[in-house]
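Sample entry was shown:
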Amino acid sequence: MKLKAFIRTSLIIAISLTICNIAFSKSKEVPYLRNGVSFSIAEGWKMIANDSIGDNAYYFSAERTGSKATGLITVTWVNKTEDPEKTMALHQKTMKSANIYRNPGIEFTAVIPDTFASLKVVSCRYTTVVKEQKLEGLIYCFNSSQKTITIFLQTGLDDQKVNEKAFDLIRQTFNCRE
């Protein structure tokens, strides 16, 4: 009888610990859903923009909190299908003319076929210096559910590993539906 009680108590404790672990691990992610676009942001990141651009486009941005944190995630989309390579070229042109990147400049790699969240996309990388800190970025652009979506992931070299965990979470949780 004592063995049965011990096994039952052990099972209850194991199940309770598993449930608590699942509940607490989920609380470290902040879900985002707007206009059929969804993903999760990691703990330690703060939303800095969540705006409509006119009637047909959206802009979301989050940055990692903390001193010397360089992580930046930006997701933009328009509710129509456009050529991802032309959209990428437009974003590059806009970034080249932005004051923050103008001095010392920004360099882009060639646009290549890639994957993001199991979707076929085009991507390119970029490097720049902002406030004496070298930054690297990755831009994805693709069509999904009658939308053209662009995702920017930017990090400094000093906290690249920490930021990459958040970037991986976006890649794993991203979804788009009508």
Observations:
- The chain has four helices and eleven strands.
- The helical segments are 2-26, 84-97, 99-102, 160-173.
